[in-house]
Amino acid sequence: MLSISEAKSKLGVYKGAISDFNKAIKLDAKDTTPYLNKGLTKNKCGKLDEACLDWSKAVELGQVDAYELIKKYCNK
To answer: Which three-class secondary structure state does DSSP give residue 47?
Structure first.
């Protein structure tokens, strides 16, 4: 099941989704999921450099899926 933030991202409500992911990060800065999803959302709206930073933070916190996204999108 999607979170509200993920649903917003899928519906193209990128600014709202990013704001929600930032709030989730403030609540638990060690949770990797908001960083991963915020990066996916930023990538969808053309902010690849910012997406790469979010994915890098997710990797730093132990999210291995984000590393694949970095390899695919960021190291070009």
So the answer is: coil
What's the CA gap between 71 and 69, in Å, rounded?
Answer: 5
Close Cβ partners of 74 (under 8 Å, ≥ 6 residues apart):
48, 51, 52, 55, 56
Would you state the structure tokens that stand for residue 17, as one six-digit string? 């989704």
**pTM of the complete model:** 0.92
**Letter string b/e over residues 18-47, b meaning 16 or more CB atoms within 10 A of that residue's CB:** bebbeebbeeeeeebbbbbbbbbbbbeeeb
CA dist., res. 16 & res. 30, Å (int):
21
With tokens 């450099």, the residue in question is 49
Q: What is the mean pLDDT of each run of 10 residues along the chain (76 residues)?
A: 87 94 96 97 96 98 96 89
